[in-house]
Give the backbone structure.
Amino acid sequence: MLVPVPLHAARLRQRRYNQAAVLAIALARLTGRPLGLDVLCRWRATRKLEGLSAVERREELADAISLNRGADVAGKRVLLVDDVMTTGATAHQCAVALREGGAKRVDVLTLARVADPRLG
């Protein structure tokens, strides 16, 4: 199952689209794999992570992302889709939520990887 990294509702209204969801939709069409657009929820707004250290990012995201009520990932292999990965804090928090929901395996696919030695 393909699952995009979620945006908080306020950020989604501001941007008008979730770039991770756009990528996941395209991949689902190309591969024929199931798509879980509403599996994860970023229920707590977080400040922008840009410029934060790896530790600050992890602290900011703690308990901000969870499985949506009714989402079924039990026993499934999930490919988490995001546009950019910097420290991996967002992907980690998503993976924790998916694993707590019973996902058998969680892999991450990103369009770009930002390597910034200042972020550790």
Q: What stands out?
A: Residues 2-119 form a domain with the Rossmann fold fold (CATH 3.40.50). The longest strand covers residues 77-85. Helices lie at 9-15, 19-31, 54-61, 89-100. The chain has one domain: 2-119.
